[in-house]
């Protein structure tokens, strides 16, 4: 064995150790509020540099299995702590538990005394099954923003967020919550969901490796997902269901490129029934078989609601309308922090709608010139830049799409979301964070275009 061949496992081990340490540093600093965004930025840049170095070395036979082992190790630090970035996982546990009891999370709120037997010290540290909250049945969601905010406020008696309103999560997410709840003991709290999300993250790494290899690209670039501190924080730690949406989105893109439009539509519809955002990717699939994909996507999404419609009736949307109103998606006054830098509130919604429609049209017109993965990056990343959500885990599917499309600059958008999350309530600061991410994407795109034009063969002078 040559010295170079012997050095490959050592190089992979060293790179993997750096990635695991970066993930651990992200989790620890986020837990203790020690410069979490600075740590996350440096951790992501470090993993990016490590990925570049890994792909510069010759690929040995143990390289790809080693990537998966390190991806699994990166999830471990997050599993050792309770969720840090949000309390969403506690709502997931509750929704799954309610379904297993035979009730619907769309028609009951967590503080409902009718479900008092489902309380435990993990989810309800200040409210036992014998206590009474004096809340019964689903509340009427008010139109007044002040009343809506009061209704959706947290309660110190429970770790579940918005415990006075029903759930917002669509049916496929609910099926996932119920499946995990079925095998998770109550004292384990959120750990079952954290472990499930960690496993999904590693599975997506394997899926990306396979997709990149089949397309003739270096599969080791999948480490930008598998070794990402962002993925470690939002999968193995926070257990955000966006990881499940990412799995369905990647699957949809992969099977669509293999000319299986119906299956692509089924997977994309399932992704939309986890989180609504993947529905925006339909224009990226409008090419050969695109109509089949579109119909299958919408059909899958609507069909997933049928069992819950039978169980909850008109309450089947839960708190989703109220949530969309609070986030500025349904009241005609977009909360886009990026557009707020230059536009009044009344104009933002129109600009968001027109820009999104224009982007979808461009994707359709260029369907023969860009891949589905690249088009999906434009649509998903563009939606995040336009709406500037303050919840960074919304960008998890975009990281997977960026790897699949080899458009790594889009990872800047989820990073900007963390800065926006830390600066909640400061619209200018949030807008500048997303403006910086948009600049990174634009500059990288221009550089790539220029480099591509320089590589094109010159026509001989006539």
From TrEMBL:
Taxonomy, superkingdom: Bacteria
A GO molecular-function annotation: hexosyltransferase activity
Leader peptide range in chain numbering: 1-24
InterPro entries (UniProt xref): GT87 (IPR018584)
Single GO cellular component term: plasma membrane
Major place of residence: membrane
Membrane topology recorded in Swiss-Prot or TrEMBL: Multi-pass membrane protein
Subcellular location: Cell membrane
Family named by the database record: Belongs to the glycosyltransferase 87 family.
Protein name: Uncharacterized protein DUF2029
């Amino acid at each position: 064995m040559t010295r170079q061949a012997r050095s490959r496992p050592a190089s992979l081990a060293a790179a993997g150790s750096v990635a695991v340490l970066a993930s651990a540093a992200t989790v620890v600093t986020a837990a203790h509020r020690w410069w979490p965004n600075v740590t996350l930025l440096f951790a992501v840049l470090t993993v990016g540099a490590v990925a570049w170095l890994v792909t510069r070395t010759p690929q040995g036979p143990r390289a790809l299995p080693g990537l998966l082992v390190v991806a699994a190790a990166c999830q471990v630090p997050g599993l050792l702590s309770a969720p840090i970035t949000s309390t969403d996982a506690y709502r997931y546990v509750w929704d799954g538990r309610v379904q297993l009891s035979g009730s619907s999370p769309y028609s009951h709120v967590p503080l409902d005394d009718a479900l008092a037997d489902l309380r435990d010290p993990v989810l309800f540290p200040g409210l036992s099954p014998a206590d009474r909250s004096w809340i019964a049945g689903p509340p009427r969601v008010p139109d007044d923003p002040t009343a809506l905010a009061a209704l959706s406020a947290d309660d110190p008696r429970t770790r579940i967020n918005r415990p006075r309103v029903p759930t917002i999560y669509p049916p496929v997410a609910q099926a996932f919550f119920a499946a995990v709840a079925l095998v998770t003991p109550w004292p384990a709290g959120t750990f079952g969901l954290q472990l499930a999300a960690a496993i999904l993250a590693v599975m997506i790494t394997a899926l990306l490796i396979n997709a990149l290899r089949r397309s003739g690209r270096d599969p080791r670039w999948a480490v930008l997902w598998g070794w990402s501190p962002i993925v470690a924080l939002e999968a193995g730690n926070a257990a955000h269901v966006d990881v499940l949406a990412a799995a369905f989105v990647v699957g949809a893109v992969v099977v669509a490129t293999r000319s299986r439009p119906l299956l692509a539509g089924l997977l994309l519809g399932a992704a939309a029934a986890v989180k609504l955002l993947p529905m925006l990717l339909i224009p990226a699939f409008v090419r050969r078989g695109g109509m089949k994909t579109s119909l299958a996507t919408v059909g899958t999404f609507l069909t997933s609601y049928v069992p819950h419609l039978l169980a909850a009736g008109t309450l089947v949307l839960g708190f989703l309308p109220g949530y969309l109103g609070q986030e500025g998606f349904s009241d005609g006054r977009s909360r886009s922090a990026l557009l707020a830098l230059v536009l009044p509130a009344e104009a933002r919604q129109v600009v968001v709608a027109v820009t999104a429609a224009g982007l979808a049209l461009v994707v359709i017109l260029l369907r023969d010139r860009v891949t589905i993965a690249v088009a999906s990056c434009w649509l998903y990343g563009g939606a995040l830049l336009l709406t500037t959500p303050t919840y960074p885990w919304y960008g998890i599917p975009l990281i997977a799409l960026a790897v699949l499309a080899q458009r790594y600059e889009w990872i800047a958008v989820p990073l900007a979301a963390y800065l926006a999350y830390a600066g909640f309530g400061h619209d200018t600061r949030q807008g500048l964070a997303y403006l910086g991410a948009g600049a990174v994407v634009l500059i990288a795109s221009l550089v790539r275009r220029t480099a591509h034009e320089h590589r094109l063969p010159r026509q001989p002078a006539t």
